[in-house]
């Protein structure tokens, strides 16, 4: 798999320097590359308790991205998914610790426990007060003697970092960190494995499946489950968390494991709100990439049954810009549309023939969704099929409200519906098309002439003509041939659509931004949609 890296051996050190160059002077590193990779605060006051954490790289923005006021004092970075060395941890402790001492926050993996633990012993030999807490928040394997430390670690960082910043002593900070550990639970789910730099991608998750309870180092989950969408996925996660989560109220941390889009993460946030535990969640951290696993296409949920003191600590402001803060997790506020955007709806009426025709057109567009998306991916942004099918589903749902027996009002009603439900330029153009057809029909034009009037208005507003590689290349000849019957119109639409594959210089639409080589041999998706529609009819 192609990645924006140079040599895998230099990946972590180059990435750390990239972070430091964009930190505005807040951060520095110790002079120990490549074996000692430690990021420290430049504004640190050694009279306060130092908070040191870290582990393998590949979890960004954890850990270096959370070094700063109110969070970590230093982050000790290992290679990708590898614990840092004892010397690296010791260097981090010595660099930031004064008489107040140091708290080590360690995720419960053998390598981290051993290396951080031995470094703590060596630091104590230097006369430094050190306490260490072990985070074990993963509930994927409830009977495991030593559960893994995953994204719930960030709650510990935040509470400990806040108390250290306010001047609390080492025992107070460490005890507060331990109290968080005892009340936080986490579990993750992914649709795909991560890609470890320099290694082939492991393809262990089958088609249509998701992996539940996987770790942050790419290790396999406890089971593969059938993937049935965001709601079902969140339900499975909550079912594992709820019995171990305590009584609430809760702070939820919704973590992007690295490769999930922000749009999907927002859907998962909504499904968490709708879940069986949603009413007990008062606050949210995220959704955001916080404790990632390289490019893993998954998410994790962490729940903390929070006290008043912990709430205050989690709410406090921090220096690192990658920390999303804690927000209230409440109801969706809905306000009325402004005046003028709630139009008078026409009186619905019934007409068996028009209802059947409309249903057939909509069904054809829904069935063509995948094929049109694939075609659009070659010359646009891959959403033509989805855009048309979304509009088609909306029209089917609104059929009972349409004036089916009045063709003039039906054209206008379809145009209005499309303007509200269909996105992109195609939605606007089709809304204009049907609105103009309604105006022409009101002035006495027959069905074919009304549709031609709609096409003319689209050309005037959109600027595209036949030969510009748009839907007009199929729609214009189809409407010209329509008086000779639907079969003639279908043949004309198909000829026009197929001709667009030879037009390698688009003059309108998104394809006008695409190179000639990418367009050659592929029909314009809008024209193809028109051809499929007439052929289906």
Question: What share of the residues lie within helices?
Answer: 40-55%
Estimate the global geometry from the Cα principal axes: elongated
β content, as a range?
5-15%
Distance between the termini: 44 Å
Instruction: Give the strand tally.
Output: 13
Strand order of the largest sheet: 9-8-7-12-10-11-13
| CATH architecture descriptor text of the largest domain | 3-Layer(aba) Sandwich
What ranges have pLDDT less than 50 throughout 5 or more consecutive residues?
none
How many helices? The count is 18
CATH topology of the largest domain: Rossmann fold
Major sheet size, sense and barrel closure: 7 strands, mixed
Mean pLDDT score, rounded? Answer: 92
Can you walk me through this structure?
The structure is a single chain. By secondary structure, this protein is an alpha/beta fold. It has 2 domains: 8-196 and 209-328, Dihydroxyacetone kinase, domain 1 (Rossmann fold, 3-Layer(aba) Sandwich), CATH 3.40.50; 352-536, Serine Threonine Protein Phosphatase 5, Tetratricopeptide repeat (Alpha Horseshoe), CATH 1.25.40.340. Helix content is 42%, strand content 14%. The chain has 18 helices and 13 strands. The protein has helices spanning 11-21, 86-96, 110-125, 153-165, 170-181, 230-241, 262-274, 308-315, 352-367, 369-379, 384-397, 407-421, 424-442, 447-462, 472-481, 486-499, 516-519, 525-536, and strands spanning 27-29, 38-41, 50-57, 74-80, 102-107, 130-135, 184-190, 209-212, 223-226, 250-256, 281-288, 298-305, 326-328. The strands form 2 sheets. The chain has a 7-stranded mixed sheet, sandwiched between helices. Strands 1-2-4-3-5-6 form a 6-stranded mixed sheet, sandwiched between helices. Strand 1 (27-29) and strand 2 (38-41) form a beta hairpin. Helix 2 packs across helix 3 (110-125), helix 6 crosses helix 7 and helix 11 packs across helix 12. The model has no long low-confidence stretch (mean pLDDT 92). GO terms for molecular function: ATP binding; glycerone kinase activity. Residues 352-537 form the DhaL domain. InterPro entries: DhaK_dom, DhaL_dom, DhaL_dom_sf, Dihydroxyacetone_Kinase. Residues 7-323 form the DhaK domain. Its EC number is 2.7.1.29.
């Amino acid at each position: 798999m192609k990645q924006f890296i140079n040599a895998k051996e230099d990946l972590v050190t180059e990435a750390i320097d990239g972070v430091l160059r964009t930190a505005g002077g807040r951060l520095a590193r110790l002079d120990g590359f490549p074996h000692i990779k430690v990021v420290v605060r430049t504004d640190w006051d050694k009279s306060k308790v130092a908070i040191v954490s870290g582990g393998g790289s590949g979890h960004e923005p954890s850990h270096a991205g959370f070094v700063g006021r109110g969070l970590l004092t230093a982050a000790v970075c290992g290679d990708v998914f590898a614990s840092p060395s004892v010397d690296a941890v010791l260097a981090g402790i010595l660099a930031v610790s004064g008489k107040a001492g140091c708290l080590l926050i360690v995720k419960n993996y053998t390598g981290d426990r051993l290396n951080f633990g031995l470094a703590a012993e060596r630091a104590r030999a230097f006369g430094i007060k050190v306490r260490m807490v072990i985070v074990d928040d993963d509930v994927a394997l409830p009977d495991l003697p030593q559960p893994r430390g995953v994204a719930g670690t960030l709650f510990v960082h935040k509470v400990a970092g806040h108390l250290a910043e306010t001047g609390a002593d080492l025992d107070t900070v460490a005890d507060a960190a331990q109290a968080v550990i005892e009340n936080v639970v986490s579990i993750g789910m992914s649709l795909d494995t991560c890609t470890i730099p320099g290694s082939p991608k492991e393809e262990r998750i089958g088609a249509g499946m998701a992996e539940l309870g996987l770790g942050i180092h790419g290790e396999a989950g406890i089971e593969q489950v059938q993937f049935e969408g965001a709601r079902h996925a969140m339900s499975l996660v909550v079912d594992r968390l709820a019995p171990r989560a305590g009584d609430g109220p809760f702070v939820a941390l919704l973590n992007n494991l690295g490769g999930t889009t922000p749009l999907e993460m927002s859907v998962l946030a909504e499904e968490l709100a709708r879940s069986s535990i949603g009413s007990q969640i008062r606050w949210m951290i995220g959704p955001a990439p916080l404790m990632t696993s390289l490019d893993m296409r998954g998410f994790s949920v962490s729940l903390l049954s929070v006290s008043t003191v912990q709430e205050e600590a989690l709410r406090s402001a921090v220096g690192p810009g990658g920390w999303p803060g804690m927000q209230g997790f409440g109801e969706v506020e809905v306000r009325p549309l402004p005046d003028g955007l709630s139009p008078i709806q026409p009186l619905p009426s019934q007409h068996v023939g028009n209802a059947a025709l409309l249903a057939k057109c909509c069904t054809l567009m829904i069935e063509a969704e995948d094929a049109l998306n694939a075609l659009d991916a070659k010359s646009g942004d891959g959403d033509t099929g989805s855009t048309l099918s979304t509009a088609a589903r909306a029209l089917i749902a609104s059929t009972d409200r349409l004036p089916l027996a009045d063709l003039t009002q039906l054209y206008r009603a379809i145009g209005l519906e499309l303007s509200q439900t269909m996105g992109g330029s195609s939605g606007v153009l089709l809304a204009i098309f049907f609105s103009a057809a309604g105006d022409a029909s009101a002035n006495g034009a027959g069905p074919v002439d009304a549709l031609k009037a709609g096409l003319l208005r689209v050309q005037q507003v959109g600027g595209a003509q036949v030969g510009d590689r748009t839907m007009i290349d199929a729609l214009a000849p189809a409407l010209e041939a329509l008086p000779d019957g639907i079969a003639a119109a279908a043949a004309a639409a198909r000829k026009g659509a197929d001709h667009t594959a030879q037009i390698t210089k688009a003059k309108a639409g998104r394809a006008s931004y695409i190179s000639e080589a990418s367009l050659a041999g592929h029909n314009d998706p809008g024209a193809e949609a028109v051809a499929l529609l007439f052929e289906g009819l």
